[in-house]
Amino acid sequence: MNLVDKQVIQNKMSKRLVKNQFMNKLFFSATAFGIVVLIVLLYRVLSEGIGHLDWGFLTNFASRFPEEAGIKAAIVGSLWLMAVTAPVSLLLGIGTAIYLEEYASRNKFTRFIQMNISNLAGVPSIVFGLLGLTVFVRLLEMGRSIMAGGLTMSLLILPIIVVSSQEAIRAIPKNQYEASFAMGATKWQTVRRVVLPAAIPGILTGGILALSRAIGETAPLLMIGALSFIAYLPENVWSGFTVLPIQIFNWTGRPQEEFHLVASTGIIVLLVILLFMNSIAVIIRNKFSKRF
Amino acid sequence: MAVNVKDMMKKNKSNRLLLRFSEKAAPTIFLLCAIISVLTTIGITLTLLMETITFFNRVSFIDFITGTKWWPFGENPSFGILPLISGTLSITVIAMAVAIPIGLASAVYLSEFASPHIRKIVKPILEILAGIPTIVYGFFALTFVTPMLQNVIPSLPVFNALSPGIVVGVMIIPMIASLSEDAMSSVPNDMREGALAMGSTRLEVALKVVVPAALSGIIASFVLGISRAIGETMIVAVAAGATPKLSLDVTESIQTMTGYIVQVTLGDASYGSTTYYSIYAVGMTLFVFTLLMNLLSQYISRRFKEEY
């Protein structure tokens, strides 16, 4: 006796299996779409911009003539900006993370700070620009300076650094603390000698990724009033400045086709810097992160 | 080597004062760091509020939220924000039309179909895509996507809503993909295995078991994506043009709220003029919109979370 009619099952099954196969391919193509876009984008930028990329481009100031236009002021400006943003945002971010993870008691105030940070992460960057323009540039009379831009950027990436540092600290197992306390160490000694050394690779990885976001960010600095045509190098943190993305924005906005090619070259430089920072982050993550 | 224990104890004692001080000071210093973030929020709210109030002393609030004409320059300026909102809305709708299907499909693929090997290759690529600065996307929209669209729609002007909308969508894909994938990965394997054991295909497991179970996280990622699209600045500033228009025709040049703020800062609206204060009113509107979206996203993922 044949309890199961194989033919019927096969008929019913095959439709579902075909559908399964088809949707599998469809989902795969959706995933591939993102990859294709990335390849097209990189190919376009490289093929247009590589011709202009030479030593002169890196060492010339901006110019009215596309062939002479260079990116020196922007590169130096971005470095100056990082020199302000990195220490301020890292110190504040790590401090906040240590407070929230190690010292804060679980009360309403702590929850408020935590919620506040996650909401700050969702505020559009241009709103941070408005804050910087009003508070740093006008109220504190810093002018359109590197200091004003750097502080604005620090506040912008602060939530990212706090969250990633918190995760790094939380990943340290409890027995590390207990061992330290058992040896008679105080809270602060434990934080300084056990927690921080163990968490520093994770903190640095998150910090570098946050800084690479700051290097690519344009809108807040446009608000601060970073200039796009600068033919001098900044002397100190109170100088006016320009940065890579703003220089690229300026070239993109010009009607002449040649400047679009120059913009591509600028994008190559920016992407190379980002790639460099990201690889450092990956190396730190892979090499120094401890597994407990 | 002989260690003099007495000396060590003495040294320890003299260190103790410093130790006790740093022990007390450390939490206070860290608390101050934490308060900076709260101050930032207060600072944003206060600056926006103060300058917006100045603006509303000159322009009536009702005109602002119901006016259909945004013409801030020249004589007889008119400040009705609806055209800017409609511009922002068109960009957001186009972006989400691109980002939601592709992002969700990528998430389903990565979480339910892909082998670990493929996942290992694809996820870093999506991360790279997420890390590309928005100005680069803006350049891409203006110099590649717009000309490409012009091949299809010959009448398309250089500045339009369609091209930046699509590119904003592309920018958001990695975010929706990775957040939705996180939500799906946290669905326990027993549920998948149960469904598979009942004879489901992988597709049926994905669509009828995993996606419904992870729905709160998925929807939350959509809402966050909308918030990102509303606040996106550089892509629209580069490729969408600067003509505030109350229309839903995506082939026209439009202006978003963010685009307007950039336009004013680039131009020479003198400090103290009504045009200058208008960027704060627009910024306030933008801030309120994105804040509501973020809160909604948090609410959804907390309220409708299914626990297993």
UniProtKB/TrEMBL annotation, chain A:
This chain's source organism reads Virgibacillus litoralis
Q: Record's Pfam families?
A: BPD_transp_1
Q: Which Gene3D superfamilies match?
A: MetI-like (1.10.3720.10)
Name the PROSITE patterns on file.
Answer: ABC_TM1
Q: Where in the cell is it found?
A: Cell membrane
Q: What is this protein called?
A: Phosphate transport system permease protein PstA
Q: How does it sit in the membrane?
A: Multi-pass membrane protein
Q: Which residues form the ABC transmembrane type-1 domain?
A: 75-280
In the record, the note on similarity to other proteins reads:
Belongs to the binding-protein-dependent transport system permease family. CysTW subfamily.
Q: Which UniProt keywords apply?
A: Cell membrane, Membrane, Transmembrane, Transmembrane helix, Transport
Q: Where are the transmembrane segments?
A: 26-46, 79-100, 120-140, 146-164, 261-284
Main localization category: membrane
InterPro entries for this protein: MetI-like (IPR000515), MetI-like_sf (IPR035906), Phosphate_PstA (IPR005672)
Renumbered to this chain, the signal peptide range is none
Q: Which CDD domains match?
A: TM_PBP2
TrEMBL record, chain B:
ABC transmembrane type-1 domain span:
85-297
**Where does the chain cross the membrane?**
29-50, 81-104, 125-149, 161-184, 205-226, 277-296
UniProt entry tagged with the keyword Nucleotidyltransferase = no
Keywords attached to this entry:
Cell membrane, Membrane, Phosphate transport, Transmembrane, Transmembrane helix, Transport
* Entries under SUPFAM superfamilies matching the protein: MetI-like (SSF161098)
Q: Which Gene3D superfamilies match?
A: MetI-like
Where in or outside the cell?
Cell membrane; Membrane
Which membrane topology term applies here? Multi-pass membrane protein
The family database entries (NCBIfam families) matched by this protein are listed as:
phosphate_pstC
Summarizing the function annotation, the protein's role is:
Part of the binding-protein-dependent transport system for phosphate; probably responsible for the translocation of the substrate across the membrane.
| Family to which the UniProt record says this protein belongs | Belongs to the binding-protein-dependent transport system permease family. CysTW subfamily.
- Listed name of the protein: Phosphate transport system permease protein
Task: Report the source organism.
Answer: Virgibacillus litoralis
